[in-house]
Amino acid sequence: MIVKALHETGLKSEHCYMAGLASIAASYIAWGVSQQAEEAGVDRADRWGIFVGHWAPTFFGLGLALANYEKR
Which residues cross the membrane (predicted)? Predict the structure, then answer.
């Protein structure tokens, strides 16, 4: 039901795969910026990197679901 709704809005599996790759890059950038900009040190930078890094599996999972739906 959700995959069908996403497909009907024009979202394709390639879009989700690209978002997954972008979130990996954003995770690294968030870690680096947080480490440089904040006084909290490496602990907070690690948390930011991990938080953003958790988005990638979600995007890749949606990409796989959409790819299976597109085969129909």
Answer: 16-33, 48-69
